[in-house]
Amino acid sequence: MVRFVLQRLALTLVVLIGLSMLTFFVARIIPADPILLAAGPRASEAQIQLLRERYGYDRPLVEQYVRYMGDLLRGDLGTSVVLKRDVGPDLARYFPATLELVLAALLIGVLLGVPLGLVAAVYRDRLPDQISRVFSLGMVSIPNFWLAIVLQLILAFTLTILPFTGRFDRLLHPPPTLTGMYTVDALLTLNFEAFGTALRYMIAPAFCLSLGALATIARTVRADLLDVLGTDYIRTARAVGIPTSVLILKYALKNASLNTLTQVGLFFGYTLTGSVLVENIFSWPGIGNYAVSAALTKDFVPLMGVTLLTGFAIVLVNIVTDFFYLVLDPRIKYTS
Amino acid sequence: MTIQTSFPRSGSPPPPPAGNKSLRLALYRLRQSPLSVIGLVMVVFILFAGVIGPELVPFPEDATGNTRMEARLTAPNETYVLGTDDVGRDVFSRTVIATRTSLVISLVVLAIAMLIGIPLGAISGFFGGWVDEVIMRITDIFLTVPALLLAMAMAAALGSGMVNAMVAIALVWWPGYARLTRGQVLSLREREFIEATRALGGGRWHTIFRHILPNTLSAVIVKASMDIGFAILVAAGLGYIGVGVQAPTPEWGVMISEGRGLLRQAWWASIVPGVAMFTTVLGFNLLGDGLRDILDPKTRR
Predict the structure, then answer these.
(1) CATH number at residue A125
(2) A23 in a domain, yes or no?
(3) How far is B203 from chain A (nearest CA, A)?
């Protein structure tokens, strides 16, 4: 198993280096010139040249890449040409907000998706199952940024039961920063009022983000439950007289949970992507919003930072998921 | 000739039509799944709207930056069935015209993605060894990063616009097809008919393009039908952010973005294009889901 973990890590390193090259060359080879954009339309030739030298853009590409990698290894993600700030601290400030949103979305996905899949499996091929199928396909078909606007229209404008945008009441102080995730920080400091406020701001965007995971988890739970329900030991248990509810909740669901866990791991990345647009609509101060403004101003250093951080987070979650799988199911042996 | 050995019991679905032609069998299976039929109807309707809809809409001139200030922010009425936006353009006309934009984008994206992905996947699977290793590690890199994020970076770098948006999305979309084709090729490579082709002296490229690739087609079709909807969503996402299709071209993402600022005065400006997009994506997903059951019996549950 140690060998397996080491192999995975080595592969991950290759992928991350590749990712850094990809983002780097996308940013430098393709036409748009960030320096010209940053300098503005009225900058003189000399000023532009000065900027180029300051950010090292006058060097050969390979040298630029080597310098970029060197900086990266020292934890320096570069400086934004537009914001004139270092990218690293910005990411550190925005990432917890995104992570909080994504984790909340995955939690909603599990809490709603598992019962939905359960109902579909129990009523296989009957009306509840069909409804669940349409519902799942519908949820992956909804443009989540559009749903975000619909929720704003209904919940914030018309019913005024939830705040319109933002992450916390502007007139109040957010809980002290421990993890950077407001709800977690509020709970850790036993500040339940702040927890409630943070939750009110988070619920709508988190729900929008949860749909993909929710739908897939529902489908996975259904398929796995049907598999398990067809096995001999369940039939035996049924014959012995164990009630169906106990059978499903206690025996079948346990064995179906493994695949669900994998789905949650896989959907971490998917949900992280969705957060780009949803954060933008709810003015949620996360890395998605940060990436959108960077893309609009053709500010590539922050964009590369977000891409690398996202890729790194996804690879990390995949490894952890694999590892859990390995621990939870002793039948699986990783060779190769 | 097949001999019917079992007779339909009451309540069970009728048996497949005799003379098992694959098309008839497929149609039979399609009929067995009402949801796929609904999906098919939706897709046909959408294709219809995309192909000839733009010629039939009441205000075709609204496809441009046309303004009609006297009618701005009109609520849905007889003239403007789904209302107007902040410069008085008919939301219904623009939404229908945008159907064509989105269909064209997603089809071109998938075509480019397949043109890159399928040959690379086939080469990877067929030759194996270091070639396989290199190509697969490259797909790993692309598949690690969320498509939208990478497409956003590419689109920003290439410059905004419809063509660049298509190129950007296709460049992040091909690894899926490479992976799929590789998997298919790996299993086909060992089959007897391929061995026979080789024994008869068929060259490598001949074997790949004439005997292996045609057999991967059904898997590719299934994936493509599921992907159309997602490609539409990503393209609209780019349009919404502002790095994809640019205003005043009617495109759902762009329209939603413009309508978002008018939420208080004119909710229809952002809700209507979203409904159209949702319907389109749902139609393709329902159809794709059904096609998977039909063309890929292994995954049937």
Answers:
(1) 1.10.3720.10
(2) no
(3) 31
Partner residue facing A277 (CB), from B140, B237, B286: B237
Neighboring chain B residues of A130 at a CB cutoff of 8 Å: 35
- Both tokens of A150, joined, read 């619909």
- A267-297: per-residue pLDDT in tens? 888 888 888 899 999 999 999 999 998 888 8
Burial of B4 (C-beta count, 10 Å sphere; 0-12/13-18/19+): exposed
Q: Please give the Cα distance from A312 to A12 (Å, whole number).
A: 9
Could you tell me if residue A95 is inside a domain?
Answer: no
A33 is a domain residue: no
What's the gap in Å between the CA of B208 and the closest CA on chain A? 27
- The continuous run of DSSP H or E covering A256 comes out as helix A253-281
Tell me if A306 sits within 8 A of A115, measured CB to CB.
no
Contact A292 B241 (CB under 8 A): yes
Token representation of residue A298: 């053709």
Residue of A nearest to B160 (CA): A296
Using an 8 Å Cβ cutoff, are B296 and B218 in contact? yes
Residue B95 sits at the chain A interface (C-beta within 8 Å): no
pLDDT digits (tens, 9 = 90+) for B112-164: 999 999 999 999 998 888 999 899 988 988 888 778 888 888 888 888 888 98
Give the pLDDT confidence of B9-36 residue by residue, as tens digits.
344 444 444 555 667 777 777 777 778 8
Q: CB of B240 within 8 A of CB of A277?
A: yes
Residue B292: helix, strand or coil by DSSP? helix
Q: Specify the pLDDT at position A333.
A: 61
Domain count, chain A: 1
| ipTM score for this prediction | 0.84
Q: What residues are paired with A151 via a beta bridge?
A: none
Q: What is the value of pTM for the model shown? A: 0.85
Closest by alpha carbon to A22, among B171, B256, B1, B237?
B171
| Residue range of the domain that includes A219 | 100-299
A195 assigned to some structural domain: yes
- Cα distance between residue B209 and residue B62, in whole Å: 46
User: Using CA atoms in the order A267, B117, B99, B286, what is the torsion angle rounded to 10 degrees?
Assistant: -50
- Tell if the CB–CB gap between B256 and A26 is shorter than 8 Å: no
Amino acid identity of residue B17, one-letter, is: P
